[in-house]
Amino acid sequence: MEKILNRPLDFYLKWLASFTALLHVYLTAHDIYPYYKFSGLANAGMWIWLSIIWREPSLIILNIIMAAIYIHGIFV
To answer: pTM of the predicted model, to two decimals?
Structure first.
């Protein structure tokens, strides 16, 4: 049990982001409006955080653009 609890933050964050990605795909596939927009934004936010932890500029830029698109879609 101790091995599970002594994992770094990115371990838990990547699993939470993966679960959120699956939730987003489900909501989008079933056209559950407007929740799929918010789940996509939350997912992009988590991946931005992970990308910063991992120091991956390509993922940071990709997810910032994706988050901007979701924000635009929410307010338009």
So the answer is: 0.85
